[in-house]
Amino acid sequence: MSDSLPPVGPSGQIARAFQNAHLTPLLALLGILLGILAVVVTPKEEEPQIDVTMADILVALPGASAQEVENAIATPGEQVMSEIKGVEHVYSVSRHGRAVITVQFEVGIPRQEALVQLYNQVHSNRDWLPPDFGASEPVVKPRGIDDVPIMGLTLYDPANKWSGEDLTRLAHTLEIALKRVPGTRDVDTLGGIPDRVDVRFDPARLNGYNLTVTDLRQALASANTSARNNRITRDGVSIPVQAGTLIDSVEAVRQLVVGMHQGAPVFLDNVANINRGGTVADQSVMIGFGPASERADPGQVHPAVTLAVAKKAGENAIDVTRAIETRLEALRNRAIPEGIEVVISRDYGKTASDKAEKLITDLISATVCVVLLVLAAMGWRQAIIVGVSVLITLLLTLVFSWAWGFTLNRVSLFALIFAIGILVDDGIVITENINRRIRNSRHAVRDIIPVAVDEVGTPTIMASLTIMAALLPMAFVTGLMGPYMSPIPINASAGMVLSQLVAFLVAPWLAMRLLAHQSGADVAREAALSHSAEGVNTTVLGFFHRLLSPFLGDHHWRRRFLGLGVVGLTLAAAALPVFLAVILKMLPFDNKSELQIVVDMPEHTPVETTQQTLLALGEHLETVPEVTNWQAYAGTHSPINFNGLVRQYYLRSAPYLGDLQVNLADKSERGRESHAIAQAMREPLQAIGERFGATVRIVEVPPGPPVQAPVVAEVYGVGPEHRAELARAIEATMHNTPGLVDIDTSLEAPTQQWEVRVDRERAARLGVSQAQVVQTLSTAFGGQGIGYLHGAHAKYPVPVRAILDEGDKAQQAALMSLSVRSRSGERVPLASIADIATVDWPGARYHKDLMPVTYVTADMAGAVDSPLYGMFNLVGRLSQQRAMPDQYFTSLPSVAEKGAIKWDGEWRITYETFRDMGLAYSVGVFLIFLLLVAQFRSYVLPLVIMAPIPLTLIGIMPGHALLGREFTATSMIGMIALAGIIVRNAILLVVFIRQLLEEGVALDEAVVLAGAVRIKPIALTAISAMVGAYFILDDPIFNGLAISLIFGLAVSTLLTIVVVPLLYYSLARVRWL
């Protein structure tokens, strides 16, 4: 054995340059300070921000049928919008008199760029709406992630002394105060009762004074006019002159002269009852409390309003919500009167803070555990080196994450926890090799360290590149799942690069100061071993001799038998999902503290009945032990979340629509998870809904990207009757499919409407136009105001509207007794020129990507709650029905004259995600192969190194089956990461075997020595990764990642140290290597 040290390559030269440099500790300190700064300045939120840009284009065509709106407005509009580059889907809903066209851009397209294209397309193609057609100008309403409120504040009076109008005025006042909080964006009042003056006229009194509704409108318009654009000069002073005064009080409205009768003025209160407030609301909010509430009035329901507060893009949700709470405290007993309670019905800042604190704590705990592991295995000096290296690496990775634009959220922090095991590997391998080299050499430490670093430098660089090659393709996953999970591959890959740099720069500097005293400590133990295997533990060496010797030499049949056994185990593990021992699912449900109950009444239902239904549902919620409070929204929507944004719940504003926002006790204070609570309440709530004819759906916050519904059947066909027939058949089959719940369709219940038909010929003879009739009836029903009340204290204009009493509205005789004035000035009763017919109300017409469609939706519940199994069970049942058309799974049908069914929902996002992840996995494996071919200049040796990759299945699938967990997208991420980690271990073994062979060691002895020498860094790396994964295990979403890492690493590492040396041995004996 020669006493001279070999020359070093680039890795050793870097270590030599920095091992004694004064700059090294300064760089380390700078990295620590920058990391701490990154933790402070990086915005924190619970979930990643996904750049999803949508926009609704609203167009009105008063009086037109749904079919005319579809043909004349929606279809041409869809054609124009689909021309925009980057548009993924164009949807439309056509209803009587209006259309909503929704443009959904591809994920990742910058919001500003998308909206500029959209506005340009809308305004440069105005000719798709004929100018004299009667359609309104298109109104573009952009939607995005920043429209989701991060905070909900529900105001109510426990004593029920404040009316809905009073609470609404208070909420409008608070809107201004809360908007002054830095970082807030939209502050909206939901469920407010608008402030207005109702002029409830009596048709008989109007006729008695020879007046019409038009006379009231004209009188108010004439009296409510003022001008202040003149000045006079008097005695050298310029004096402004105002002509007329505006109506600013209800009393002024009452005293308004609307006509003359028998020589006397007729005041407005002679023909109408005039009141401000106290009107029948077309929407409402109620708040109730459950058993988990700390309030003293459980079971009591109070009128309320809700303030929804959104934040600006890039703002820290935690800081904004805390500032709002501080502002609320300052406003109590000032702007918020005594006796008014404010319930924080949503606080995403608190959930983000709780999640960030827990994950940062887990990150610190995982790091400490890894350092303690190194301490136990290598000693306290080595533990300090590894601990400092990991700390600097993690902090620098946080700096990179901030610079890349990521926020501190559950995914980015989980990426760091997941990466601890692979980030620590560089430090462990290099520190262990430095320590072993120092202890077994009498050379100067400053000369040994570069050699030790260089010895494992190339293998660790290659190993890091293989992990990056496995992870980085995941960053290109398309759809909503791509940006949601992108912090994992990007942050982990950046951490790998930074870990390698820290191991080359900082670890040698620390080793010079902490390990120098051990120089030559084990020289006396040197035996006839090769230079590279100096210092191997004899006990470990003996173990590997006993483990591998039975398979060496001429015992080729033993090696084959072992190979067949490993292949059989791999196939058996892969078959577990086929036999439902492991369930496949996109993502498991998270344990949230909120639920939503969506209620759809028949389309003819008034808001009062909707409110009664919601209150009946609320009574049951008061019996659920985990419920703290709930808010019932009738005729309007609750504050939307990301799921509601994608499902367009913000458009749910109609008398027959409602929902309940249910808040649960904190998960630390309840035994059941939110998914179990939702499943338990579904049946009793739907039984209550059936009594009122309502469709009740339990909507949980999805754990990942939202979809329209878990199971969606899109029914295509030429005629609406054909589509409706198919939809009803699918709905009926769904009811007979086990596990499918919350079944609904986009078909609307049969409803009738009154249609006032004007005899145009008779009207013309009497000097009356149809427009006068339409305007009179619109005013009478409250659809058109007749003016505004002016005042100094109202935030919003206070409309004055002339309206019939609710009882008169329902009487055809009262409607027909209204009059219009002819050109000659005569009063003409409507009964003389029009009649009322009862006709069917046309339902809404839906389009998707220029094709008419009807939706049938469902959810999945039960022992197997993965929607995929329910959907494919349904597919099989539909395939057995002869009348069913072709079914499509991945693309829209090109031609659908005979009808077609396209499956969407969770199936689509699962298919796209696993397809892209499978491609990413394949690309990663291929990149690993290319790297290995480039490094070893062989086609066979890379296959030896990559052989352990499929062995990970032997741990992953049984691990999921053992713990009763579904194999999810996060499980797949763990499986992809394992490909790189396990190859890293194989590289260390193969490189060392080749190194020993070059030094003249026999093949049999080399494969044994390689395992004995490299078992410590391999085992430490695997256990470190498993320790990091352990802290992810309790997360409902990411536990699949943890299971894959823990069980996959445990099994594949044990197999790798046996399979790789023996496979190398077998191929080397036949001279393939």
From TrEMBL:
Q: Any transmembrane segments, and where?
A: 20-41, 359-378, 384-404, 411-430, 461-480, 492-511, 561-584, 918-937, 943-963, 975-997, 1017-1033, 1045-1067
Alphabetical GO CC annotations of the entry are: plasma membrane
Q: Please give the Gene Ontology molecular function terms for this protein.
A: xenobiotic transmembrane transporter activity
Asked whether the UniProt record includes Membrane among its keywords, one would answer: yes
Record's keyword terms, sorted: Membrane, Transmembrane, Transmembrane helix
Q: Which InterPro entries match?
A: AcrB_DN_DC_subdom, Acrflvin-R
The entry's protein name is: Multidrug efflux pump subunit AcrB
Native organism is: Tamilnaduibacter salinus
